[in-house]
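for the recovery benchmark. tokens below, seq after
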């Protein structure tokens, strides 16, 4: 029987040290989490209808999240934010009054216009203050009355 403090012979592996190291690395490494994504539901919407920017895989714990118009977040393009610790929704300069922000990370638009078409960015600040950012876009089709068919028609560029 060999003592634990006995000197290792050449070629022997220090199993206890390896097991301890592997255990610590497993404990210390962060768990891989699914990436935050957003879907536009529906991705193509007719003017005066609604669209939901539905967030998926939000972190269980986060500080705050922001919604911006466009792919480059800045103060002027902020639509709204949700501050988790206070359970507070705040609107930004790009807020039109037709958006509703939800605590699950989603953003709802009602009565969309052609000006709403384009990209939107969700930025989540997690518990360690790391930013997580993802973007989504949707298209808005114009609605017009067709004299020849006698009904409402929708198209992107007002041509049937």
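predicted aa per position
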């Amino acid at each position: 029987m060999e003592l634990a403090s006995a000197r290792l012979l050449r070629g022997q592996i220090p199993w206890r040290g390896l097991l301890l190291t592997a255990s610590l690395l497993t404990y210390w490494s962060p768990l891989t989490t699914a990436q935050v994504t957003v879907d536009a539901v529906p991705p193509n919407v007719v003017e005066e209808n609604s669209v939901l920017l539905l967030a998926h895989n939000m972190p269980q714990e986060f500080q705050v999240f922001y919604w911006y118009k466009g792919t480059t977040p800045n103060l002027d393009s902020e639509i709204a934010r949700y501050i988790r610790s206070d359970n507070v929704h705040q609107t930004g300069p790009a807020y039109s009054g037709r958006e509703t922000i939800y605590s699950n990370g989603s953003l709802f638009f009602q009565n969309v216009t052609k000006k709403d078409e384009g990209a939107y960015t969700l930025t989540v600040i997690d518990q360690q203050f790391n930013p997580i950012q993802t973007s989504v876009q949707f298209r808005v089709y114009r609605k017009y009355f067709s004299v020849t068919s006698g009904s409402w028609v929708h198209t992107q560029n007002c041509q049937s």
